Amino acid sequence: MKLGYCSITWGGVVGHAQGVTSVKDLFYLTHGSMRDAVKDIASVGYQGVEMFDGNLAEYADKPEELKEILSSNGVALTSVYTGANFIYTDILPDEMHRLYTAAELAANFGAERLVVGGGARRAAGSTDQDYHRLGHALDRVADIAESFGLSASYHPHLSTIVESPDELDRLMPLTRIGFCPDTAHLAAGGADPAAVIRKYADRIQHVHLKDFQRDPFTFLPLGEGELDFPDIIAAIRESGYDSWLMVELDNYDGDPRVAAELSKKYLEKLL
Question: What pTM was estimated for this model as a whole?
């Protein structure tokens, strides 16, 4: 298995402000320098990087700059993360336009995978129809990704329509999209990450490894939180998945390079 790291830690996740009034422009983004992120990620030995669609969009008019950043550091753009509300019929065409753009950018910069999170929660609560709409939309996302030679996977996430194991079980029969387990988000949503990985072993297309503690809630470098990573890695191996393991840390108070190195050393011992 190859190890990669997500660029989110260099600045944390935000969104394009224009997306408040224009859904088609609401890309994910981190405000950190992608040059610094890739350099740091490469310096501690990771082979790949995952970026947000919004960070790629910043290089749409200067693609050679990002390609040079990647090539000069010997790092592959493994995957691109995006997402959408998905359940609102009226805005779905504009959201699909944005997801098409994300897939096109990912392919242009040499990525292999499109990782998709989301599915809004209504103020009045989620309905059965919402899960059917989400499943149908994710099938369309898989079609878009495949048209660009990418594989697509769905990433359960806190604050979305799929954060608990029961919600994941409601969704999975309704879509053919691949599965991207995020160990910390699964655990924070009430699941045993290793058990979920074993349950959906044949759907895994991508993996996010992330640690956390519940009280006070915070994400942490691997091995510093509460998760049983020996069992998680065993479950991944049992599944037959033998590809990229992407380490992710949504936020960190210290130097993001130090966090990346701590997780890398822990994983090397574990693997």
Answer: 0.96
